[in-house]
């Protein structure tokens, strides 16, 4: 078997915050981020209208859009697409016989457990109850059902997106804003940042 054209693709999730409309010159800043990340394929969330097409065309990339707020842009051709209630997938064709499937998700954003804990000081039991009420569990279960045929095959599968839920364990202490200061101050600071995750470079923080 010959060497793969793209042996370790860089796959990135990027919430583009209302199609880049919430910052000055948002599209240009997003293009700089994508180029700087070294990404091969990007799963976009909060990307509506012609936004994904605009990014892709300026990069000379390929694109696919689910008609809502999810889109995939790629250096490499995109083939068959797949849908779920809160997810969107596409087949990425790196080279003949060399493919992967990328699934991109955007789960419901409210209620959000870290805000409940940090700003409203809710009990664990109440936070867990509100998590169940958020609909995110049902959404991701629907995505996993749609992914099942891909997961049972030999083609690599990537799942990225804006899950609007924290990891169960981070290995680090809570941020200072959750242990000091007033909720109003902390809330402002917490909402002033977004993060996109790349399988190669880890957390990359963009300040709004």
From TrEMBL:
Residues 184-208 have a biased composition (Low complexity). GO terms for molecular function: endonuclease activity. Residues 165-208 are annotated as: Disordered. InterPro entries: Endo/exonu/phosph_ase_sf, Endo/exonuclease/phosphatase. It comes from the Bacteria. PANTHER family: PROTEIN CBG08683, PTHR41349. This is Endonuclease/exonuclease/phosphatase family protein. It comes from Actinokineospora soli.
């Amino acid at each position: 078997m010959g060497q793969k054209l793209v042996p370790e693709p860089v796959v990135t999730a990027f919430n583009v915050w209302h199609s880049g409309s919430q910052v000055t010159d948002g599209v240009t800043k997003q293009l700089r981020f994508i180029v700087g990340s070294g990404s091969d394929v990007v799963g976009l969330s909060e990307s509506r209208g012609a936004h994904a097409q605009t990014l892709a065309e300026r990069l000379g990339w390929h694109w696919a859009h689910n008609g809502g707020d999810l889109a995939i842009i790629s250096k490499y051709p995109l083939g068959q697409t797949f849908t779920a209630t809160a997810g969107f997938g596409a087949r990425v064709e790196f080279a003949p016989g060399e493919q992967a499937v990328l699934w991109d998700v955007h789960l419901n954003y409210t209620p959000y457990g870290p805000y409940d804990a940090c700003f409203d000081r809710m009990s664990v039991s109440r936070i867990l109850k509100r998590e169940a009420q958020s609909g995110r569990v049902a959404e991701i279960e629907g995505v996993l059902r749609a992914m099942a045929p891909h997961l049972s095959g030999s083609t690599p599968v990537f799942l990225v997106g804006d899950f609007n839920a924290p990891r169960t364990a981070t290995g680090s202490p809570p941020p200072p804003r959750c242990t000091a200061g007033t909720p109003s101050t902390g809330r402002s600071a917490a909402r002033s940042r977004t993060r996109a995750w790349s399988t190669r470079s880890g957390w990359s923080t963009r300040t709004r």
